[in-house]
């Protein structure tokens, strides 16, 4: 049945039972998972595979006991919809960014230099990614069970080929390869019934994340046709990002006078301490006790206590990608995303300052109803430029493309500090734009006829 949340008096009725679980759920903690990309060589085989996958997909919100919760999500690229034989009229109804794909728009979103599509890991950007499967769980045995069923489905379907696999997992530290806790923020979405992570955030309109509902403009976002295909779907930007952990550590070491200053500098660049405690609430030192409290770790805004960024710099990673109520050019609520980062590869050994050659990083999933004004805007304007905060040309200290010439401003009294010659700490290894259909849409796709 449909579920109505309590975000506001005029909350819309959201058809939770038709929205794939992979769209709205926060990432479980701890977690294990796998991403699988498939190529469809025969449209009938592709449709048959969707019919086999349908019983594995689920709708709704997390179970009461999240440790017993696992789910498989099914998404498709534009080329995948073509491969399934979706009518041209429907294909043409998708937004331009989705039809062109991430590789074609790499320059716009800052995937240049060593992050350019020419250097991406195959099959990213080749047009051979048609169906993207993701599976996440807190329970290893349950994840294996779901993956075995998915494997049986695609291996028993001639005409469909696996073209890429990536295992992801939470590191023993519970942190990213850079050493910082992740997965803390989740938006408060009107009508969904799942509390946001920041109790001070007013509910954001459902249509910012799910098609078929009003968004922050008061209008319905453009939706693919027919209605059964578009409604309760959303768009997903999937990215594989390699992290240059040794370069990160060397830069911090070279620009600090000791361990304490090094830790503070890293926190200023991220906006949180390694435990996840935000600088806005604890600017002088890490506070693991605060970080462990789910009611406090994300309970803050910027304008009242830190509008000038003396605690958390305006250019810090978390403040750029979610400015909250900061004084910026534009409206932050128009650019909110559901972000889900998952780690791959081994950690770099503690204290190591030289790269060991291992592939490590994150698979980032960015979910929203508007690819251009959400994911692409954030990448182009907030991550790879600083106009909106009054620092033209400055990029995100962690996620920006610096190429050895980056600068970052850290407000301090009496004189601000300016970091120079930043290298790029992350390298894009590949990315795809996907459409995550509702469950009725998946059935419609599975039952297409020539």
Automatic annotation (TrEMBL):
Q: Cross-referenced PROSITE patterns, in alphabetical order?
A: DYP_PEROXIDASE (PS51404)
Output the InterPro entries linked to this UniProt entry.
Dimeric_a/b-barrel, DyP_N, Dyp_peroxidase
Keywords of this entry: Iron, Metal-binding, Oxidoreductase, Peroxidase
- What is the designated name of this protein? Peroxidase
User: What cofactors does this protein use?
Assistant: heme b
Q: Which GO terms describe its molecular function?
A: heme binding; metal ion binding; peroxidase activity
Q: Where's the DyP dimeric alpha+beta barrel domain?
A: 71-155
- Pfam families associated with the record: DyP_N
Family classification? Belongs to the DyP-type peroxidase family.
One cellular component (GO) term of this entry: cytosol
């Amino acid at each position: 049945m449909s579920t109505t949340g309590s975000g506001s008096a005029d909350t819309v009725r959201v058809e939770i039972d038709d929205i794939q679980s992979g769209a709205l759920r926060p990432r479980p903690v701890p977690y294990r998972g796998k991403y699988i990309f498939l190529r469809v060589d025969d449209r009938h085989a592709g449709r048959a595979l969707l019919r086999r996958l349908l019983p594995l997909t689920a709708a709704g919100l997390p179970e009461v006991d999240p440790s017993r919760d696992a789910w498989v999500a099914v998404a498709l690229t534009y080329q995948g919809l073509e491969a399934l034989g979706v009518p041209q009229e429907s294909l043409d109804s998708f937004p331009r960014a989705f039809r062109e794909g991430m590789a074609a728009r790499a320059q716009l979103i800052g995937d240049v230099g060593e992050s350019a599509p020419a250097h991406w890991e195959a099959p990213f950007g080749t047009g051979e990614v048609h169906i993207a499967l993701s599976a996440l769980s807190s329970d290893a045995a349950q994840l294996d069970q779901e993956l075995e069923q998915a494997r049986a489905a695609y291996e028993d379907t001639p005409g469909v080929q696996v073209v890429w696999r990536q295992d992801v997992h939470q590191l023993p530290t519970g942190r990213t390869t850079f050493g910082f806790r992740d997965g803390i923020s989740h938006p408060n979405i009107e009508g969904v019934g799942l509390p946001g992570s920041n109790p001070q955030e007013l509910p954001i309109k459902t249509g910012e994340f799910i098609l078929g509902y009003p968004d922050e403009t008061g209008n319905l976002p453009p939706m693919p046709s027919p209605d059964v295909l578009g409604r309760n779907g959303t768009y997903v930007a999937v990215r594989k990002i390699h992290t240059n952990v040794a370069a990160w550590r060397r830069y911090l070491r070279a620009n600090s006078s000791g361990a304490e200053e090094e830790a503070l500098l890293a926190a200023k660049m991220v906006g949180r301490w390694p435990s996840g405690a935000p600088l806005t609430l604890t600017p002088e030192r890490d506070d693991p006790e605060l970080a462990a409290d789910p009611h406090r770790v994300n309970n803050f805004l910027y304008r009242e206590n830190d509008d000038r960024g003396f605690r958390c710099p305006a250019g810090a990673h978390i403040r750029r990608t979610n400015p909250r109520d900061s004084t910026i050019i534009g409206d932050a609520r128009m650019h909110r995303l559901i972000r889900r980062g998952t780690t791959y590869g081994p950690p770099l050994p503690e204290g190591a300052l030289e790269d060991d050659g291992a592939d490590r990083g994150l698979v980032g999933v960015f979910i929203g109803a508007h690819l251009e004004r959400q994911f692409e805007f954030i990448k182009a304007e907030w991550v790879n430029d600083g106009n909106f905060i009054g620092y033209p040309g400055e990029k995100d200290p962690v996620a920006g493309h610096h190429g050895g010439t980056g600068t970052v401003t850290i407000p301090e009294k009496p004189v601000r500090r300016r970091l120079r010659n930043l290298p790029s700490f992350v390298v894009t290894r590949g990315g795809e734009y996907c459409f995550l259909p509702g469950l009725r849409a998946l059935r419609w796709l599975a039952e297409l006829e020539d």
